Amino acid sequence: MAPTKLALSAVAAAIVAAGLYVAIAPSCAPVAPVVPVQQDTPREDTASDTHQRVTISGQTFNLELALTDAARFQGLSDRRSIPEDGGMLFVHPSARVLRFVMRRCYVPIDIIYLDERGEIVAMHAMEVIEPIGSDEWYRPTRSYSSNKYAMFAIELRGGTLPSLGLSVGDVIDLPLEDLKARAR
Question: Could you point out which of 10, 11, 47, 88 has its C-alpha 20 to 30 Å from the C-alpha of 101?
Fold first, then answer.
């Protein structure tokens, strides 16, 4: 019996040690960028479990969905580029004043905040924090606020907002009820 207990104790100690290493790993450790898997045939529908097609001012975007706390926290951090028709759609379980930061962002990002009806309540051109790799880059103090209650945020490639000609009060057509039901 003793050798079996010893072997299990050694395995348990190794697991704990590995877990502790992950817990104390420096926060500045690079995170591998998320690379979307391309399908052999394009999807014909407008939504999937991971993406939502959205048309804004006649331009169609294939937005990654951020439906959970973890996905919303990660956002577009660590990305080296954003496709011209790409970006992210953040869906929150309830409306509140939202604040986004440019944590570990290599590229500028435009953000559009929407209320629970899809109405634009604020927009910002968010800038990369320089120098990249600085303490501020990892733990930003500047935030970009919705200023009013918002439930959705759309992040697009920096410099996209001027071409869309949007104004606060405009409505972006989204499958609101479906998205709300999926947010966690």
Answer: 47
Helices (H), the chain: 2-24, 69-74, 135-138, 161-164, 176-182
Between residues 10 and 160, the one the model is more confident about: 160
Residue 77 lies in a domain: yes
The CA distance from 170 to 167, in Å, is: 6
Q: What's the confidence (pLDDT) of residue 9?
A: 41
- Given the DSSP bridges, would you call strands 144-157 and 87-100 parallel, antiparallel or unpaired? antiparallel
Domain interval for residue 52: 47-182
- CA quadruple 123, 74, 61, 82: dihedral positive or negative? positive
* Token pair recorded at residue 56: 């804004």
Q: Would you say the C-alpha torsion 37, 38, 39, 44 has a positive or negative sign? A: positive
CATH code: domain of residue 103: 2.60.120.1140
Query: 133-144 pLDDT, tens per residue?
Result: 999 999 999 999
* Backbone angle region of 51, left / alpha / beta, with phi > 0 → left and psi within -120 to 50 → alpha: beta
